[in-house]
Amino acid sequence: MTFVLRGPLIRFDGNPFADGRLIHEPDAGVAIRDGMIADLGPFDQIAPRYPDAEKRVAQGLIAPGFVDAHVHYPQIGVIASWGADLIDWLNTYTFPEEARFSDRAYAEAAARAYFDEQLRNGVTCAASFCTIHPASVDAYFAEAERRGLRAVGGKVMMDRNAPDNLCDTAEAAYADTKALIERWHGQARLTYAITPRFAPTSTREQLDAAGALAHEHPDCRIQTHLSEQHREIAWVAGLFPDAGDYLHVYEQSGLVRPGAIFGHAIHLTDRERAALAEKGGAIAHCPTSNQFLGSGECDVRGLIGQGVAVGLATDTGGGTSYSMFDTMKAAYEVGARRGDILTPEQLWWLATGGAAAALGLQTHIGNLALGMDADLIVIDPGATPLLAQRTGRADNIAEILFALIVLADDRAISAVYSGGQAVLP
Predict the structure, then answer these.
(1) Is 275 in a helix, a strand, or coil?
(2) How far apart are CA 86 and CA 88, in angstroms?
(3) Low-confidence ranges of the chain (pLDDT < 50)
């Protein structure tokens, strides 16, 4: 089926941290066929090419769907929980909640709730950590497949420094992950991510097992955490005294390569930054989580300037909101405190094309272009009285985008399309 969606539209012709620009088409047409973008441009040029296609009018601004580069769907039940720091928060809230995912029905209910929230906030693709339980991965991918969503995810691997009921072994983690890759990777719109939680909860044997899986399945992604807090970094140094730094722990097991996404990456050494750029590791910037847990501030522009791919991420439930508007706002605030303010175009890129590139999916999602997946959202700039008042006074598209960043919430998401299918409302 082919249809043409009409409305004002934004897209990118490249990365705005380099020489790319945000393009605004006030009256655009997007021709969608078989889940892909078949054509786009000014509506008066597109419409005559598809005289028999259904014409749909978008109730707002057509934009690429948001992409969330790092999330924990099993933590939907513990978002907004008080914690003294990262490790306290994990032990008090996260680990007890994740233990419940041994129950398949519980995991399935959480997956439904998570994807409801994801779509309500205009996120068309996310990369999620599951739990150590294979059923948690099955629930996540099955629900994404049922809704026709592109999704990245994987079973957490942990064999120490966690409750006994949340620990596996190097051998079991390898076997379970391999079986899950065979079951889910490449099916429909699904991508498997090999997922050692983070260095403190894996022995060298388990990290090596993850590295073996990465070698055997080079088209899978890898996801883990890196240099989120100083206490964590000191812990890693004590656990892996033969490693030169935190990133080196992962390098020693073959886990730093294109397709590897590292959450946070706040307190990096110069060597780690250079190694990420050289070896192709990407960063998921999680500003609401970093502020909530007092972790620190990621050097987004500096990392991108060194050639490291960086995408935005909610990191829910450590993050405080499923909204990419809130996440972009937090990224702006982090930059402002660093004396390095990001523009509206750059913030929007981090939440779309930048996050897609971090996940290695930039040829499929994160922008609106010929041949890409028709994963797009429609945003109502007048969704609330205050938002309507501010956007109504805007002189250009950048002002509208920044007003959305600061003032919008899920009420501004009027429609979501995934693979060309309307999945919201």
Answers:
(1) helix
(2) 6
(3) none
